[in-house]
User: Fold 2-dehydropantoate 2-reductase from Pseudomonas songnenensis.
Amino acid sequence: MSAASPRIGIIGTGAIGGFYGVMLARAGFDVHFLLRSEYAAVRERGLQVNSAVHGPLLLAQPQVYCDPAQMPACDWLLVGAKSTSNDALGSIIAQLAAPGCKVVVLQNGLDVEDAIRPYLPESVHLLGGLCAICAHRSAPGVVEHQALGGVNLGYHSGPADDDAQAQLALLNEMVEMFRQAGVDSSAMPSLAQARWMKLVWNVPFNGLSALLDAGTEALLGNEDSRSQVKAIMQEVCATAQALGHAIPEDFAEKLLIGTARMPDYLPSMYHDRFQCRPMELDAIYAAPLDAADRVGVAMPKTELLYRTLRFLETRSHG
Assistant:
């Protein structure tokens, strides 16, 4: 391993890990994939990305592992698993991180890095990745990529805590690797601000799609649901502003316009609910609501959505 030819590990090879891992591997990077339930299928048939942007992509012989003990230590680790598994992921990430490793958490929600940081050695850098992508897994080892794909990166914690220049250099290293792989990427000066900006979209669309059994086209095409989307967006923006994160005044409206131009999309929480998987309620709802409470901002529509989703989750999983 070296800075010139880093070893990249993918932890959680679903829609997110699968897409970015395939893109990086096809660009010539040394990529290793950790899988569990889909290991046999991927080892036999490879990783397939059916992309509306890049065309059909097949990684016929990916370097795959079902046991982290058999996977080599990596310079970079991209965490594509859902935040619902973070309690179990910490020790695996620590086991696979080479000295000075850079761990990039490609998850939705707030404070997701905080759940992983206690497991990591002090020598490991922890970064956050904000993915703007329409993708889902349609079968074991098969990713459907409908649109977008960019990743914004921010520094969370590690040896470069007090060195802004070193942080930017690390971020730009990953940005350049993504760009070489055909993935648009940028370094963000504030990870916390970037996460709140992504929550402006995730809080309304993820929850309402799961609750109402509807994709983005239906949610925006109906006057009632569109008004709820906009009202929830405004609550998230108000909380972010109260926390000191500058959100452009027209940001929510621009997100609505951009979403209307996308193909009809069913967000990840929709798939989680209707495939009977745990929904990311803590990271996408509980953590932002706690933050709002700390600064005295009311988010009644967001809280109602959260409580309703929690009822459905409890009813399904106990």
Summary: The CA atoms of residues 52 and 146 lie 5 Å apart. The radius of gyration is 19 Å. Residues 193-317 form a domain with the N-(1-d-carboxylethyl)-l-norvaline Dehydrogenase; domain 2 fold (CATH 1.10.1040.10).
